[in-house]
Every structure is written in C-alpha cells, then in structure tokens.
Amino acid sequence: MDFWPEFHASNWGREFVAGGFGGVAGILSGYPLDTLRIRQQQSRSGSAFGILRGIVGNEGPGALYRGMGAPLATVTFQNAMAFQAYAILSRAFDASGSSQDPPSYKGVALGGVGTGALQSLILTPTELVKIRLQLQERAYANSHKLHNRHNGPMSVAKSIFQREGLRGMYRGLTITLLRDAPSHGVYFWTYEYMREKLHPGCRKDGQESFRTMITAGGLAGVASWICCYPLDVVKTRLQAQSHLSPVQYSGIVDCLCRSVKEEGYGVLWRGLGTAVVRAFFVNGAIFTAYELALRCFFNNESSISIQRESAIWEN
Length: 315
Fold this sequence. Notes:
Elements: H1 3-9, H2 11-42, H3 48-59, H4 69-92, H5 105-134, H6 136-143, H7 153-169, H8 173-198, H9 202-205, H10 210-239, H11 252-263, H12 272-314
C-alpha cells in the first residue's frame, strides 16, 4: 500500500500536513523580529532600533537568525499537531455536535485552550534551546567562557541535558502552559470570528479571499500576544537562566515581583511593539499557508475523483 496517498486521503492527514506548511511559513517570515523581541525582554534599556543596530553591528546580520534551527526542525510536527488537536478538540467541545456546520465559537475557544496546553509540552524544550542561542553572545560576554560556546541547537540541548537532565529541558513548562493555554483560546477564536466578519459564510464554504486569510490570521496573532505578553516576559527571563551566570529567580512569582520592583511595570510590556508587528506578519503567513495547503489537497482530491470517474465511463 502506498502510504502517502492514503495519508492525504484522510481529513486528519491533510490538516496535519497543512499545519506543517503553516508552521514553516511562520518561522521563516518572522524569526529576526523574534530575536529582537527576546533581546528587548532581557535588556534594561534601549529602543528596538538601537538594540537591532547593536546586534547587526556587533554580531553580524546572521545573529538575527541564530537559534532558528531548533524551531524550524520541530515546527512542522509541532504546528501540524496543533492544528490537528484544534480540529479534534473544537469539535469535541462543540455543544451542537453537527459535523456539517463549523464548530461554535465556544467550541473554538475551548479547543484552542486545550491545544495550547498540549502544545506547551512540545514547545517548552524548543523555546528553551532557541532562547539560549538567541542570548548566547550576551551570556558568554558576561561569563568570559568562550571555550564552551555552542554552535547550534543540538549542542545547547546536549549541554542542558547533561547538566540538568530531562527536568532541565522542561525549565519553564509551568509558565509556558499558563501563557499558551489561554492565548491559544483567544488566538483561534479571534481568527474564526474575524474571518467570518470579513467574509460572511466562509467558515462553512472555506472560500475566503487571500486578503481575508492574512488579515484574520494577523489579527489573531496580535490579540493572542497582547493577552499573554507579561507572562512571555517572565518565561523568557526564567528560561534564559543558565550555568553561565548566577540564578536570579527562584520561580514565576519571584521573577514577576523582582522584575517589577527593579524595573517598574513597564518591564512586563517591553518589546510588545516588536512582538505585535511580528505576530501580524507571522500569523497571517501561518493561516494563509494552512488554508491554501488545504485547498490544494481538496482540489487535487476532486481532480483525482473526476479522472477516476472518466476512466470508469471510458471503460
């Protein structure tokens, strides 16, 4: 049996692959802004432009892509699983239970919350490695241990696992769960709501325009980041802690309280502008790639069915 055609023949197979396309599109379109956001969250001063100029001037343009290998290596599976889990859970939480109509907005929101909770199990180690690489130059400049410098995500992951074990790989799991569960509920609800407002009836027929996909996806990303951003700042600071420098925070509450006490409440929103701009482009790309991939799969299936029917009639 040929596995690939059989895999594409199922709804869950198409959704899985389409989710992978969306994830890759999101990473490629927004990674430099993600690096800038992480640096802003760890910096005590400086504008976004000033920090960006410092990164490029001191470390070269390649520094904006440092650590991209970790999320890029897992994003296909991670995003595919996220969209597949969302498709299943949004139906499961739908009170109407009708397979002919799109899930209710309540089902969409609850399905998103469940998806975010499940995704945090995959996302925590990936983001830990990514953040360590994005902040590596700063960490090693402070420690002067250049002989231990990591040259890629596998090197970072191996070092963390050797020093801290599996528990170390999941540093920040709780805060990631607290961030991702509600934000994914907002994320998927906003997308479904906005696409229907921009193109009435598209949730049922799936024929929204290219502009609707980008706009609804972008607004969904912006809404989800705004609602969870303070938790993301705390998560970055907790996961940035490593053996290269003394541990600053003992936990989520300690990190939150000390950060606010030392730098004011503004620290919880530092880098938000960069995150919002990135979120619009990245999530517009994710949903557009996802929806276009689904259309491609369904159109191919329709073409194959027509060809089969023609062959039957000819015979």
